[in-house]
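Ticket opened by: R.M.
Priority: normal
Category: complex prediction / small molecule

The reporter submitted a protein together with 4-nitrophenyl alpha-D-galactopyranoside and asked that the result be attached to this ticket for the collaborator who will pick it up next week. Submitted input follows.
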Amino acid sequence: MANVEILPKPGSSKIITDQVSISLPSRVIRAYRHGWQSWSLAAWTTPTPLPVPKPTRFHTQQFDAEYAEETKPHGSWVGSVELENGTFLLLGAVGLGAHVMVEGGRLLGWSEAGEIEWMIALGEEKTIFSDYTQALSAHLGCAPRKPAPRIWCSWYSLYTDIDETILSQIFDQIGDLAFDVLQIDDGWQQAVGDWQPNLKFPSGMAALAGKIKRTQRTAGLWLAPLIAVEHSSLFRHHPDWFLRDERGRLVPAGFNWGGRLYALDTTLPVVSDWLVDLMRTVRNWGYDYIKLDFLYGGALKGKRHQDLPREMAYREALRLMREAIGKDGYLLTCGTPILPAIGLCDAMRIGQDVSGEWENLRDSRLFCNPGTPGVKNAIRTSINRLWLDPLVKLDPDVVYFSTRGNVLTAEQKTLLQDLALVTGYKATSDLPQWLTSQERDQLKSFLEADPVIKQIDRYTFTLDGRLVDFTPALPPPEAPEGLNAIWGAFIGKLANQPPILQLNKRIEDRKRRRLLQNLGIHPTQTT
Ligand code: 9PG
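Result attached by the on-call engineer:
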């Protein structure tokens, strides 16, 4: 390993190495932490440590599991510091598999993938980040600037309680609202891993795509192709397709859908063929907008059939899927490691999921976890990733207009809508029949709006002259103290136990279903 020592000079320069160490000329005031994948925190914080988020079982699906226990300011590929002398320093990998950290008066960078190119830039924040995106664009490419479609997505109102009757009715009720895409999210498949329609879709997925197309819109579909849940047929029939560690043990890929998740070894020819077939199948069903989710599963640490650095293995799998989808398909990546997907997708989710609340108090106050669903987490991370804009269309997740099914204040909803206007990616899951006529008008003008956007500083903008300030979403969760710390540690441990997680899922599913029933929707019950 060659450790290159650098004394920063104004401007930007590049070096090729696998380890770099920059001594900082003055004290760090704030450090930029850039999380690995869509749902990992991105924020400017003070250089003091941030506690390890709980529960640890979710580290794999919320952060980069390799670094989730690190509390010092650190991040994936790129880091930056604001120095006491008023300048900003950036260290960024122009390549995959790199990590950076602020430690002992230094900004350190290292690569898991051998020698790579690094950019070191000292100057104004805007300039150094734009130098970095230019270098990334030359190295990874950038998506052709297709206009972003306006999307109705089933997730944030119906969750997995979708069926073909409910969706068909909604597609009719959408009427003349200016959506370009009607996207079916999680809940149509037999299991995560088994990408065939379940009993709630007896007419098949092609029929529903046809229904959407008859409304003159693009049909969209969600899939999580790189992972499978332990109870899927895919996992049970092909345990040898899944990623294992040096000792032959399965690599955990998280916990969701009431079971353990595992990740495919995409470097196995049989697996890459299967992925290509899957993409062709959904394209043949008639879906032209594809949301690929839980993609981090392709970049977990493990011993692969082909000995490639983990992020390169993922990028190769994504490249194959992108090719199979074709240039005329629109690809949104989600739960994706950020850099490896650049140049291969049209749009990328750049933050945590939104939810019907600003902040979940258990997750923030007890678990100190900034990687969980909630509007505050989603805005915080997305607003700190706007520098990626020249490289890919940025999806900050859906916005809400309806007051049904959520407890957001009018200001919180507006802030989220304004963020979508800033990135230009507009989506909602609001059910047309839940909207008052005033809310429907607001949604209509949001979908049709094309405001003049000016950035005033890092977190303030004007939209057609109206000042918008995103700072209310910035403070990261603070470490719990006293009783909260004790209680948080206790339930954090409980929340690592699969039976507790399964019980919690059953309770949450039932709550959600009851809410839908109260709002006049009667989902087909399969469980
Ligand atoms: C469908 C959803 C929606 C949503 C995606 C993704 O456990 N987790 O950490 C976790 C994070 C995000 C998440 C689900 C679980 O949501 O972002 O838009 O498609 O999957 O299941």
